[in-house]
Specification:
- The protein has about 220 residues and is an all-beta fold.
- The chain has one domain.
- The chain has no helices and 16 strands.
- The strands form 3 sheets. Strands 2, 3, 4, 5, 6, 8, 9, 11, 12, 13, 14 and 15 form a 12-stranded antiparallel sheet that branches.
- It is globular, with a radius of gyration of 21 Å.
- The relative contact order is 0.23.
Length: about 220
């Protein structure tokens, strides 16, 4: 285990970074066969994921609509490089282009500061170890929800606004005691067109807001003509 010092860690491509995390997930499929402990063959994939939380306005503006209509790589992505400040053992952070998998905006305290979270993934290629990257990465439709007093623009999002796409939900809770405060929230469900829009609110006393969406990406392994 290596210790990483936050004050010395930098993230290229984002500003006002609150936290960063990353992981590499190897996917190994062994084709077992009768009469042997050795696999007939091994299929390997590798995905590297990053998760970055920034103060509102510190992340990129990404367009999510329209979804893919032919075999062209999705442009719903961002680039970043994480340079960890590690103690004793050298730690190499992720770098490159990441396809956005989720976005959220959060300002849960009326006197708090709005934050945005970007999560992304990249498919790696390593010919020496038999790891092949997808031929194409396609973008699907991004569905999500938002709530609170802030406008969608103040939460850094653009949604369809089409009544055919919109649905509304409610949540509420309260506890006994003094003063026994609770909260009731109306949530709007819609299709997201853009995230990280310039103008997302950082500090604005008296207001709260939450927004989130998942961004589906589909990798395809196809023969190149």
């Amino acid at each position: 285990m290596a210790v990483i010092i936050g004050a010395g860690t930098t993230v290229v491509g984002f500003t006002g970074v609150v936290s960063a995390s990353w992981d590499l997930n190897p996917s190994i499929q062994r084709l077992w066969q009768l009469g042997s402990w050795d696999p007939y063959d091994t299929i390997k994939q590798a995905q590297q994921n990053v998760n970055l939380t920034v103060y509102a306005g510190g992340g990129p503006h990404i367009t999510l609509h329209p979804p893919s209509q032919d075999c062209v790589d999705s442009t719903a992505n961002f680039t970043c490089t994480i340079v960890p400040a590690s103690c004793v053992e050298v730690v190499e952070g992720p770098s490159g282009t990441f396809y956005l998998t989720s976005y959220s905006y959060s300002k849960g305290d009326t006197r708090g500061y709005g934050q945005q979270t970007y999560a992304g993934t990249q498919w790696l290629e390593d010919a020496v170890n038999g790891i092949e990257a997808p031929t194409y990465i396609l973008l699907g439709i991004s569905e999500g929800q938002y709530s609170g007093d802030l406008t969608t623009a103040q939460m850094g999002i653009v949604v369809s606004g089409d009544s055919d796409n919109i649905a509304t939900g409610y949540t509420g809770s309260v506890s006994a005691g003094f003063p026994g405060l609770g909260q009731a929230t109306e949530s709007t469900f819609d299709i997201y067109y853009q995230v990280g829009v310039p103008g997302a609110v950082g500090k604005l006393d008296g207001y709260i807001g939450n927004a989130s969406t998942n961004v589906p990406h589909q990798p395809l392994w196809l023969p190149i003509p």
